[in-house]
Amino acid sequence: MRPLAHANGVVTYTFSRFASLPVQAHVTTRHGGVSPAPWNTLNFSVRRGDTPDRVQENLRRLCAALDLRPDDLVRTQQVHGTRIAQVTWAHAGSLQEGADGLVTDAVGLPLFLVFADCVPLVLYDPVHHVLGACHAGWRGTVDGIAAATLGAMQAAYDTDPAQVWAGIGPSIGPQSYPVGPEVVDRAQARLRQAERFLHRNGAGQVHFDLWQANATQLVEAGVPRAQIAIAGIDTAQNTQDFFSHRAERGRCGLFALVAWLQPRPGPRGGEHPPPA
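and the corresponding structure tokens:
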């Protein structure tokens, strides 16, 4: 991933792999907002004690940096499940309750999810010009939300997994993520050959590799590994740039993934400008 410093002070990261594709996917940092510590500064959550007016100003600043309209953002409730909502311009500005992922073929419609260690995942189908995005915490990962998002794209838009490009954004890395018996037991029950992603250190702690667990789900569903970009940025070790629930013991804000389809040349089905 590469950082972009926007004119108003907002800093985002984008996937270099997507640079030549008609899709935008930005992961925000904690830079460029107005929130004080411990949410400093570009926080997108009121659930952790920040005020609505500051969060709204942070949204306004992000949208100004990316040339988006705050009222167009489609958000998810994020319940650590695997429900994926299919959205169109009719859902602009909505909150998709009980969903942790979104898929769309609506050009320009911004999909918006929030994180503080969980995995931001972006999927793009260049053949049908379809976008998917999801929030994968440990529960979502072991329950297969990466594959569920891909499956929703297949069901709704006839996506061929072999054509999909994927990005796994900044999130807690395996070195920073020791887990207890509950997580280990559930991973072993739900993930095929879970030991590939559960690594025991010299002290006997088990660490969970969310990056490889999600990437491998996609590979096993048909996405070529060469088409999956893993940012490799550990939020717990980079709290100067990203919020980390684990490293900051819950006293932090939430950063965001915002992604949307850009127009591509020629007449294409399902593409239209946003409503006036």
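(Above: one complete record from the training split.) Residues 2-261 form a domain with the CNF1/YfiH-like putative cysteine hydrolases fold (CATH 3.60.140.10).
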